[in-house]
Amino acid sequence: MTANNKWEETSTIKYSTRSRKGHYPNIIPETNKSSPLELFKKKPKLQLSSNAIMENNKETEGAVKEGNGNDSMLKINENIQDNKDETTIKEEKLSPSPSKRRHIKIEYDNTDPPNRWSEVLGNLREMRKNSDAPVDTMGCDKCHDDSVAPNVIRYQLLLSLMLSSQTRDQVTHAAMQRLRDHGCTVENILATSDQKLGELIYPVGFWKSKVKYIKKSTQILIEEYESDIPDTVEKLCKLPGVGPKMAHICMKTAWGQVTGIGVDTHVHRISNRLGWANTKSPEETRKALESWLPHELWSEVNHLLVGFGQQICQPLRPQCATCLNHEICPYGVKYINGELKGTKFKKGK
Predict the structure, then answer these.
(1) Quick check: 14 and 31 in contact, CB under 8 A?
(2) Which of 79, 147, 309, 335 has its CA 20 to 30 A from that of 223?
(3) Coil, strand, or helix at residue 114?
(4) Looking at the structure, do residues 246 and 303 belong to the same domain, yes or no?
(5) How far apart are CA 313 and CA 116, in angstroms?
(6) Where's the HhH-GPD domain (predicted)?
(7) Domain boundaries, position 161
């Protein structure tokens, strides 16, 4: 190639197959006999091409000759509007899409109750009438010492809730028993070393983090609440390691006030299986349930569903065949019919 015509050929890039050693694809140049000026002229524009404008003008001129008065002007305006619409469509196609989807806030105000929910609730009560689940004898409200002062009872109820997160009731109850034998008061727990406190609560889930939460929260109780616990959900949630579920349950067990539904993994899972909620997190489930469930049932639903989840509606291999709601529970119907992925249930002959 000579120096005079070096701009007559420009290279385009074509990628070949990947090499054996995993290097970048080889670049194979191809020629495209176009000067930079011609390439610039070929650059797409948002406006209409000259041919389209000429054809449009011919149509409008014909319309003027064939029509008369307002009809002619109306057709001209329609053609002009069509051109604008076409340009607008092109601009919208070329506009970049947002990198992130706008967050949609979920609201549950004035939600209609699920179908046959009262029948489902009655069946749940029937299946739980013996009160023989672990939560009935070793739940967070069964871990405190009734013989101590009221503020100490409230403190022990709070600690049992903090320990119960991601932990079975049997393990929580045993850990609280060791704490009570050690001396489960605000002053004594704060004076206990982190190592000793960890030995007392082990093997609860995330025990190392809970040692820090218990120590920090206990210090706050002494400094701000005169060795008692907060009496509102908002103040309880400000304590390290305390969330909405613990706060609402603590308000019920420690203060005798029903401020909301305590939703743990059992309540969250079962509510979605029954069709009582369609949510992704326990906090969303709480809001969904509180939007339609009568307030007088709020204090019952946590204890009812937790025991039901421990005995029948387990996370894996739920006993849908023995559940009284298997014909009206959306999940139970699909599970028994083998419509769920990974379902191994087989109907009896």
Answers:
(1) no
(2) 147
(3) coil
(4) no
(5) 19
(6) 163-311
(7) 139-258
| Ramachandran bin of 227, using left for φ above 0, alpha for ψ from -120 to 50, beta for the remaining angles | left
Residue 267 counted as domain residue: yes
> What does the block give as tokens for 98?
């947002």
Whether residues 171 and 320 share a domain: the answer is: no
- CA atoms of 120 and 325, how far apart (whole Å): 6
Please tell me the total number of residues recorded for the chain in this structure: 349
Q: Model pTM? A: 0.67
| Domain count across the chain | 2
Please report which confidence band the pLDDT of residue 35 belongs to, taking 50, 70 and 90 as the band edges.
Answer: low
Catalytic residue among 21, 33, 75, 245: 245
Over 50: is that where the pLDDT of 108 sits? no
Which residues are CB-neighbours of 40 under 8 A, at least 6 positions away?
none
CA–CA distances in Å: residue 276 to residues 91, 105, 120, 164, 269: 45, 19, 10, 25, 10
Q: Is 245 a catalytic residue?
A: yes
Is 338 part of a structural domain of the chain?
yes
* Whether residues 174 and 232 fall in one domain: yes
What is the pLDDT at residue 344?
A: 55
Of 238, 258, 278, the domain-final residue: 258
In this predicted structure, what is the pLDDT of residue 340?
84
**Chain segment 207-235, per-residue pLDDT in tens:** 999 999 999 999 999 999 999 999 999 99
